[in-house]
Every structure is written in C-alpha cells, then in structure tokens.
Amino acid sequence: MKRRQLLQAGSLGALAAGMGSLGPSVTGASLLAAQQQRSGLPPIKITDVKCILTAPAGRRLAVVKVSTSEPELYGLGCATFTQRIRTVQTAVDVYLKQFLVGKSPWDIEDIWQSSFVSSYWRNGPVLNNALGGVDAALWDILGKWTGLPVYQLLGGKSRQAVDTYRSAGGRTFEELVDSFQQLREQGYRHIRCEPVVPEASPPLGPENAARPANQRTRIWEAAPFARALPRFFGKLRERFGEQVELLTDVHELLPPILAIQLAKELEPVRMFFLEDPLSPEDVGYFKHLRQQSSTPIAMGELFNNPNEWLDIISQRLIDFIRVHISQIGGVSMAFKLSHLCEFFRVRTAWHGPGDTSPVGHAANIHLGLVVNNFGIQEFHGLTQSERDVFPGSPQERNGYVYINEAPGFGVDLDEKLAARFPIRDDPSFDLHWGNLRRKDGSIVKP
Ligand code: GCO
Ligand code: MG
Q: Which atom in ligand 1 lies closest to the alpha carbon of residue 352?
C-alpha cells in the first residue's frame, strides 16, 4: 500500500477504533492502547538506533540513524560533540538503543521525555547530544513518511532562506581585511572577526612545539585582548562603512568585568552582536552587563539545559540565543526554546560551526525558516567531501543558505563513503581547550 493510502486508511480506521473505545469506563491500560491506535500513522516500530562517526573534513562528526520496521524508512540526526565523540557513541549504541527498540517512531515527544529521564541522572553534553540525535532522526522519519519537509511539519516557512554569517580569518589586520573583502564579494552581509592579538596570545618557543600533543600550551591573557578589540573593530568599521554587520566571538574567555568594559567600548561600532561574553557559570553577571551597555549580546553555545537560559531570557538580558541544537536535546527542545524566546524578543542564532554535520546544519536551517524570531544563522560552509558523504547538504548563495525541498531534513548519509573518512582518536583533536593558560601557568576557562 502506498504511503498516503495507508495514512488515510490508518486515520479513518484509528478514528473509528478510538471513538468506540473511549467511553466513561476506560481504564488506564486501555486508554494507553487506544492512544496508540489513534495516531493515524501505521503501527511501525523502531528496529535499530546507531551512531555513525565520520570525519570527511577532518573534524569528527556524529550522526544518529534510527531505523524502522518499514523497509527503507529511517531518519538521521546530528549528535556531534566532537571533543568527546566516543562517549556520545556509547550513549546511543548501548543505552538509547536498548531503551528505544520496539517503540513507535511517531511518539517524538514521548520518546524525548522518557529518554531524558531514562538514565535518571541527566543533562550534559553527552546524553543531550545522544538524545538530540535521536530526536532529529524521528522528525526526519515523520517527514519522510508524510512526504513533507520538517519545516512544514513545524508550521511552514516564514521566510524563503536564512541569512548567514561567516568568519573572516587572518593573523594580521591586513590579512583579515582581505578575507573580509572576499566574503563581502561573495555576498555576505554579516561577517564575524576574531582578531589575533599578539599581546594576548604571545607565540611560545620551540620547546612547546616539541612537547607531546597533550602537553602543548597556548597562552591567553584577557586584559590586552579586551583592550585591543574596540580599536580593531573601530578600524574595521572605518574601512568597510555602515553597510555591513560586524560580529565577534569571545568564547566565554573574559573575566566578567572585562566583558562589561568591552561591551561598553564596542558601542560606537554598533556591532550586530558580541558572542558568548561570559561563561555559563557566570550567567549571574548578565544583568550587570545589560545595565551598563547596549551592545547586543548573543549567548549560549555551551548551554545544556533550561536552567541555564530561563532567567537571562525572561529577564531580557540577551538578544540572541545561540545554543548548539543537539547539545540541548535536539529539534524538539530548540523549537520550544525559540518560542520561549519569541515572547521576550530574543532572536535565534543557532550554533553552526564546522563541528556540526550537514544533517545538523539542515536542522538549524529548517527551524530558521519557520520561527518568527529568527535572527541569523552561523554557517561554516562545507567541503566537497562533506557534500559527497552527505548528499542533499544545504547550499549557500549570496550569503543565504538554502535547504532542498525533499521530505524530512532532505540530507542523506552515504555510509560506505563515510567509512572511508574514519575519525581519529589523536589527542591533538580535543585538548585545545584544556591547555589554554595564562602567562603564570594557570588555566583559562572558556
Ligand atoms: C563558534 C564556536 C566554535 C567552537 C567549536 C568548539 O561560534 O562557531 O565558538 O568555533 O569553538 O564548535 O568545538
Ligand atoms: Mg562561538
């Protein structure tokens, strides 16, 4: 039977069954059975849940594949936590698999809620990414079955494409200006710059480079960095004028009072936003930051759970929410979060770096197409090998990014090709953050 026929037969049959069984004498158990019948979708089951790891562009990516009893009906969801990717794989392949096989893929919300508490201890990047991957895969399955793109299931398009920002790179001001100019010529209207400040990050001698990868240090001093940034952006504004939006990311590295000074001193530049000025542990400082400065604030790539964002959103202390969607539990949670933000005029700016798979980028974009309070989308850009491993990946044109109109998220995974880009467990891949130190040797916390 074709999908649509089955869907119709399913809805009518189930409606009749539901009407018959929902009388005043319904017991708890029969109510559960009646609900299961009444979904209007065929009674298929989850048959497998697995995590696929691949690194087509060098960065380690994790994708969850949920298979069903319907031949060839499966869904994909990004679960990338690149620094601890094997732990996500275990959470999916061992724990979520045994919890989910045999359940209905249509119960997206119930699977989210039950999986979330299934470990009793919860939250955190490992379990949330694993759950986020499953959640997105279930939306993908629903889209494929109904023949609709996920954006349609979430409410339909509010816009035709999502506007993106890219980062200009370079070690000197001149190099950065060149890179900035190229991005302008490609049509970008929003450009992020993270200048290298030599006084803040002095190069280390050859003895550092000679150390084993897990013991190599980088130096970072907040004060010279915070002083240099306003000068840098002042020059950039002078050079490129008012027709471009400027963004910067300070990676939660500043002591709160320096973040406040920086936000104030950036005011004349009229930034589009200042990204991640404070550590998640310092969220209490947002109210002081807000009282002192009108520089727009984007926050959140390290956030895991609602307790980290509820206060700063409801007290109107930030302007853009930029969580990593799989890190907070996937599309379902991000959709709720975007609605919460809508009421407080906070716009979305989902995290979209290189350590997001094309499936994850597509999820960011589907949400961005729907929500009224879309702000901007970070889109790192994809290499040809990523596009080959993930057929149907999003495309950029003139600074906008587009998804295709295929059902679900519209992105597939060529597993055979993915296996030709195995991930590496080399320590130089994930020790970057843990070896960032001040000149006195003490650790710097992002
Ligand atoms: C961003 C981020 C990334 C992170 C990276 C960590 O805004 O794009 O800060 O560059 O550093 O995702 O793995
Ligand atoms: Mg960032």
A: 8
